[in-house]
Amino acid sequence: MPCGVMRQARLTASLTINTGLSTGFPSTQKGKAEKTALSIISSPRNAKMESLQSGRKWRTQSLGMTLLNMAIVLLLVFPGRTEGQREKKKSDGIEYKAIRCRAHSASLADFGAVGDGTTSNTAAFQAAINHLSQFANNGGAQLFVPPGRWLTGSFNLTSHFTLFLHRDAVILASQVKSEWPVIKPLPSYGYGRDATGGRYASLIFGTNLTDVIITGDNGTLDGQGAVWWDRFHNKQLNYTRPYLIEILYSDMVQISHLTLINSPSWNIHPVYSSNVIVQGITILAPVHSPNTDGINPDSCTNTRIEDCYIVSGDDCVAVKSGWDEYGISFGMPTKQLIIRRLTCISPTSAVIALGSEMSGGIEDVRAEDIVAINSESGVRIKTSIGRGGYVKDIYVRGMTMKTVKWVFWMTDNYGSHPDNKYNPNAIPIVKNINYRDMVAENVTMAARLEGIPGDAFTGICISNVTIGLSQKPKKLQWNCTDVIGISSEVVPMPCNLLPDQGREKPVMCAFPEEKLPIEDLEMQTCFAGAL
């Protein structure tokens, strides 16, 4: 059974649904949130939920499930601790699943670290990792982070290495600027996102690595982002804010079974990397926190994102590949990406966004079994003249949405540019976009589809979609310009640019049946710590 998407709701139900997420998330509220979630799911009404099914059967599913039921009922399917997360009561330690196990292990405490929440442990983290790097070619090594509150600035990982957090371990991001090295902008971006200069290194950082794992028993990374959000709003930043996890130019990367809260900016950013797994992650940020994207695969190949629960002030998943002329020159697309069993709350942004930084190209993206709650849009394609590149071969099926502004949104004028050197003749190509088997409730507007005049977005297919409108919906439900495609069995009826194919010859939009290579990667049973 997969790692529980809604296992994470044990931590977040009372915070994400009842409080409106107006403040940051203290990790001490985990227990309270868990009790709230468990009390909610005890209701007999939630004792059963049919699995999502494709094809016409989808339309017969009940649309009466409330927002709360949608978010919590999956707890019955995804238990709190899965096979990959059991704690064995024997000296072997905590059992977990990973792409590789390690022959050597050490505890952070062995290197002089103090888990009191106030002592800086930046040097201890780096000393431990440097020491364990000697075992890279001798079975690899694992650093165990025991219970405690471990304050640290940015630190670098090494190859053939596992960072494992105990369930009661919290890595606290330092708020002292000197503990955050400034590094160059990414070559496919040219500039930082917050400022034209460099950027602060991420809390957990790695480059040119092979076989690196960041995992745990649902331990926590706390970015303590409020101070960074204030600096951003007050225009006090000389460099771009740090992310929580960033891995560059690497192969065989696993990020799993952790809770990330209050990131200064983006949470997880694999970039220029291949064979990446992001699994069983909970991400929590106040919904008005700036640019706290959840997971942003960027110029990556063969990536698997699954069983994640995200509450964000920006897109829950944003697929990227570089910015304008810098991304075009770098020329590294994101491709072979699968996103499945994702639950997202993002009132001001998208559940899944493609772009807007897509100048290196985005292709072969597959998303299925997605739950969107109180989010601005379900799937959004963001691009602009000057981006160049392409978004093509996109497949989405099995999506359930409750309270969204737009179900479908394609934007041709997302006009943020790094500088004025972009090529106005660099026209992005958007084609072969497939959506099927979707149900949405409390929707303001079905679709806003805006292609580029003279360069229409083509090959759009939408089938077997039922959209229930809010009490105050827009009069015009489908606003379509410069798009070409078809629709089949869609309610309400789409625009004339997406003609219905008729009941006599219904169409099912494409979704590839063959697996991506990353889906066949088998996990090993490993152990961390000593009981």
TrEMBL record:
User: What are the entry keywords?
Assistant: Glycosidase, Hydrolase
* Residues annotated as domain Rhamnogalacturonase A/B/Epimerase-like pectate lyase: 109-152
Give the UniProt record's GO annotations in the biological process aspect. carbohydrate metabolic process
A Pfam family assignment: Glyco_hydro_28
What GO molecular function annotation could you give as one example from this UniProt entry?
polygalacturonase activity
Look up keyword Hydrolase and say if it applies. yes
Query: Do the record's keywords include Repeat?
Result: no
Q: Which InterPro entries does UniProt cross-reference here?
A: GH28_Enzymes, Glyco_hydro_28, Pectin_lyas_fold, Pectin_lyase_fold/virulence, RHGA/B-epi-like_pectate_lyase
Question: Which PANTHER family does the record cross-reference, listed alphabetically?
Answer: OS06G0106800 PROTEIN, PECTIN LYASE-RELATED
The record's family statement is: Belongs to the glycosyl hydrolase 28 family.
Q: What is this protein called in UniProt?
A: Rhamnogalacturonase A/B/Epimerase-like pectate lyase domain-containing protein
